[in-house]
Amino acid sequence: MNSRALACVGLLILSNVFMNLAWYGHLKWFKDHKLGLTFAALAMPILVSWLLALPEYMLQVPANRLGHTNFGGPFAAPQLKVIQEAITLVVFTVISYVVLKEKLRATDALAFVLVFAGVAVSVWGRLKA
Question: Residue ranges per domain, the chain?
Answer without folding.
Answer: 3-123
